[in-house]
Amino acid sequence: MSKELNNGIPTDSEVILGILNNSENVLKRLYIAYFPMILQLVINNNGNSDDAKDIYQEAIIVLYNKVKTGDFELSSKLKTYIYSICRRLWLKRLTQMNRYGGDIKDFQEYLSVDDETEKNNERDIQFNKMGNALQSLGEPCKTIIEDFYINNRSMQEICENFGYTNADNAKTQKYKCLQRLKKLFFQQK
Predict the structure, then answer these.
(1) Is the predicted pLDDT of residue 159 greater than 90, yes or no?
(2) Are 104 and 178 part of one and the same domain?
(3) Which end of the chain is more exposed for a tag (fewer CB within 10 A), N or C?
(4) Are the C-beta atoms of residues 133 and 184 closer than 8 Å to each other?
């Protein structure tokens, strides 16, 4: 392979293998190869170069994570896939900033892509809500829930730690604690 070819636009398979092999060179080449296309998309649709850099970076992270987890199946050109992710992310950003006018100027083919970032954000929100609910729970419930679900302690161990007469009483208390935790979780906005 000539040196010139090595610094140009990487092939789709080079990108996938490069990500799997942690190749910084391939990631740099990928970043340079398709960024102008994303810059044009964002600037043509109420954005600036900083917005384009953010969106492109997010899309590369989505691609990287999908390839690394083995969850990636390329059914189009990589260029189209990246454009599609960026397009979706930019539409979402425009909507959040109330700058989305109901249409976006496209100059590339694009695919409908599932929104990985949406799923991750939702999961993080749920984890935070559960953490807040657990903090609000109070004792002994907080420790009982943590001991059973996080520290994998048996009901017999919990019974002994809290001085319950038997494991069934500890189980009843755990059930009541779970009901309170559930109530606190769903009361949050």
Answers:
(1) no
(2) no
(3) C
(4) yes
